[in-house]
Every structure is written in C-alpha cells, then in structure tokens.
Amino acid sequence: MKLYFKYIGMIFRCRMQYKSSFFMTTLGQFLVSFTTFIGMYFMFDRFGAVDGFTMEEVMICFAVVLTAFSLAECFVRGFDVFPRLIRSGELDRILVRPRSVAFQVLSSNMEFSRVGRLLQAVVMLVYAIPRCGVDWTPDKILTLVLMMLGGVMLFSALFVLYAGISFFTIEGLEFMNIFTDGSREFGKYPLSVYGEGVLKFMTYVIPFALVQYYPFLYLVGRSDRVWYMLLPLAAGLFLIPCAIFFWVGLRKYQSTGS
Amino acid sequence: MRKYLSFFRIRFLSGLQYRAAAWAGVSTQFAWGGMSILMYRAFYRVNAEAFPMEFADLTTYIWLQQALLAMFMAWYFDNDIFDSISSGAIAYELCRPCDLYTMWFTKNVAVRLSRVVLRCFPILLVAVFLPRPYGVSLPESVAAGLLFPLSLILGFLVLVAFSMLIYISAFYTISSTGVRILATSAVEFLTGGVIPLPFFPGWLQPIMNALPFASMQNTPFLIYTGHVNGQEAMRAILLQAVWLVVLVGVGKIWIRHATRRVVLQGG
C-alpha cells in the first residue's frame, strides 16, 4: 500500500512537469462533459422532461455516472491502456517482478486529468442536490454514495474485462467501447428512457442498471423498495468474473518476445 | 498534382488494410446510432410538437452521421504529423519539393475516406432495412439528392481545412494534446455532434448557422432530409464554399509564417 502511494506521487510529479499541457487537458476533459451537459440542457429546455424525470433528477443520474467513470478511469487507467503494455513487451517485465500483476498494472498509469470530468460532476451535484426535490435523509445520502461506489467497481470491472480480451485479440477491441464509453455517454439518462430491451440487457448482461437505474428510482422516490439501494454492491460482484477472465488470459499469455 | 495523387493513393490503400478494426467500428457505431435514436424517441414521446424535425428525418440524420463518421469526426488526427513537428523530422518534409499544406491536406482526406469506404456501406445497408421511422430514408426530393453530394464534399473539406489549423498550431506549442482536446470538444459541439443543430434554442440558431462549424456535417445532412431546401439550400452551399476558401487561405498563410520561424533542435 505504501508502495502504491509512492507510485501515485511519482506519476503525479511526472505529470506536473508539463503543467500547461496538464491543465489544458483537464480543461478539455471538463469541456467535453460540459458540452454534453449543455446538449442535455437544450433538450430539457425544449421538452421539459423525459420519461417522467425532471432535469434536476437526470442531472443527479448523470453526475453519478460521470463521477464513477472518471474515478475508475483515473485509477484503473493501467488496465485501460493494457494492450499497450502487451505490445511494448512491458508486461514481460511486470511478470518477473516480485509483486502481483494487478498491483503493478494499477500503479503503472494514472490519469489525473480526469479531474476535469469530475469537476463537471461536482458542479452538477451542487446545482441539482438542493433542487431535485429529494428529501436528503441519511438513507438517501447512503444510496447516492453507494451508487457512485458501485459505479466505480462496475467500470473498473469493464476495464479489467477489456484488458482480458486484449490477450486474445487487439484489433477487435474497439467494440468494447460500446460498454465503457457508451455507458458513460448514454448513462446520462436513466436507462428506462431507452426502452425495455436496453434496460433488460443492462440488468442481466452488464449490470449497469443495478448502479444507475434501480437505486436511482429509490433515490428520487419513484420506488419504495429500500433494498434497491444495496443493488450497486451486487453490481460490484461483476468484478469477479472479469478478474477471472483476465486471469485465464494471463495464464494463456505467451510473450511476443519483442 | 501527380505527387499529391500518389500520397493520396498510399494513404488510402494503407487505410483499407484495417478491416477487423473496421468491423469493430461498424458494430460500435451501429450501437451508438441505435441508442441515440432510442433516446430521441423518449423525448419525441414527451412532446412531439416541440420536435424540430420529423422523427423519420432525425433517424436518417443519425444514420448518416454514424455511417459517415470518419469523414466528420473532429477528434481524428494524424499523429505522424504531430510527431514530425515535435521530433524535428519535419525538417525532411520541408526539404521535399512539395507544398506542406497540400501534402498534409491530401493525406488527411485519404485516411478519412478510406475509413468511410470501409464503414459506411454495412451501416447504411442495415439501416435501410430497418422499419420506418427507425431506418434511413431516401433523400427528401430529387433536388435534395442532387445537392447532397456537392454539400457533403464541401462540408468534408471544410472540416479538414479546419483540422489543418490545429496541426499548424502544434508549431507553437510543446505538447499539442491540450489544444487538440479543447478544439475537438468545441467543434464537436458546434457542428452538431452532441445534438443536431435544429435542437438548439431558436435564438442561438442564426449565430450557429453562420459559424464555419455548421458548414461541416450539419449542412449536407439537413439538405438530405429536406430540412434545408430551395433557395436556403443554395445559400447554405455557398456559405460552405466561402468558409472553405477562408479556412484554406488562413491555413496556407499561417503555415508559411510558421515554417519560416521553425527552429530545429539539432541532434
């Protein structure tokens, strides 16, 4: 653990060497999610509500997804760029070191510029929390925290899965973006907006709805089922099959020798 | 002219080699288009009156956007160009007996076209057979069908001309990542990549339409769906041509200025 913090410090200092580039990238990250937000704002300006949700409610949903994605991308970035480690032969070096592979991949890369996206999420939360009409009792606050936590675990799981697939194919990887970037992009609206089919898929195949949709229903008072607030933890279990998949891939791994 | 044609051919043919990546791209874009349509459908159900265009026109717009993504994606850049500027390899390029601007322009056009050729047909083919109003429909009228290709080409060239400015800006910065991401997100938004321009509030529309960004993907797609027609379409195409000339002009002057003061670190 101490070593991990040392790595964080190292990468942070390294990024700080290019300060202006770092801040521009952070600002860019902010702007990307900010334009998405403006787009959403224009839509609500025109239509008022969607699927019975108000803009302030949807903003909470968007902020949760954005927070979870940015945190996962910041700290689990190593798995996101894992194909690079394979191609460059860096993985071989990792394998011979006396620390676990997961630990080394995690500490090999961190993307602090994702703070920009996080900032957008914070701005939306600050705006929407007092205005969304939710009575913020302790259980609602806990629900919000659990949603974010479960979201981080789910996105981390997807990144690990992505890294696992890269043991088998490099070229076809782009389709995984449907689930990672797609979940971030389309997760801004509660999943029921996209209809029954998508909701079912996102419940049973990729448990994204357990993080984003069901606890959200409880949060905004559309549902009385208190157990919905615990569902994000169940979604975190998705990490297990993904980790196993990664491990199977690692066992099969043969270096390219480069 | 011949040398630029061969640059074009080299890039185009090498772009065609990435077929597995193209299939993955097709499936991603297909999912993306589908999800966008479902999202707009939810808004359509809330208030069909407030919808600025026919729903079937919107789905056509989205499928065209997905199918021709490689032509209009603002975030695609040829990293070789940035690398050559930061590594100093640009020195060799400057020694060549060809115009740097035209060479880069041709390469960009070629790479983007090769991607579109691989990706657009599968997407359009499936989208054509989707039931109305979810699929892609034919051009609104014969005139729209005739004007669309012209506007499409102009829009494509306007986008490439704009991205040239970002390449040139790399002469002035040590690391171009920041500029790139800022410019890309602004262009994506202003060009109608986040939501189509007709969905913007009414008071913003005249400003948006006058900017060069509306002359990229927005104009051809709106002409195709008949949202912009007749005189208005002619005017939009003329505006595209004006922006193309302006952007290419600015780019050419700027690159001359930039290459004159380029300082190469030896070694």
Largest interface: A-B, 40 and 39 residues
Tell me the helix content of chain B. Answer: over 70%
The run of helices and strands of chain A is HHHHHHHHHHHHHHH
Give the N-terminus to C-terminus distance of chain B in angstroms.
Answer: 34 Å
The multimeric state of the shown protein is heterodimer
- Work out the helicity level of chain A: 55-70%
Tally the helices of chain B: 12
End-to-end Cα distance of chain A, whole Å, is 31 Å
What is the rounded Rg of chain B?
Answer: 20 Å
Radius of gyration of chain A: 19 Å
Gross geometry of chain B: globular
In total, the number of strands of chain B is: 0
Give an account of the 3D structure.
The complex is a heterodimer of chains A (258) and B (267). Chain A has helices spanning 2-16, 19-47, 55-75, 77-80, 82-88, 90-96, 101-108, 115-128, 138-165, 180-186, 196-204, 209-212, 214-219, 231-236, 239-252. Chain A is mainly alpha-helical. Chain A is globular and about 55 Å long. The model of chain A has no long low-confidence stretch (mean pLDDT 88). Chain B is an all-alpha fold and 267 residues long. Chain B has one domain (2-260). Helices cover 71% and strands 0% of the residues of chain B. Chain B is built from 12 helices and no strands. Chain B has helices at residues 2-15, 19-46, 55-67, 69-72, 79-87, 90-95, 100-128, 142-169, 177-190, 205-210, 218-224, 230-260. The mean pLDDT of chain B is 89. Chain A binds chain B through residues 18, 20-21, 23-25, 27-29, 31-32, 35-36, 38-39, 42-43, 45-51, 169, 171-175, 177-178, 182, 185-186, 189, 193-195, 198, and chain B through 18, 20-21, 23-25, 27-28, 31-32, 35, 38-39, 41-43, 45-47, 50, 52, 174-175, 177-182, 184-186, 188-189, 194-195, 199-201.
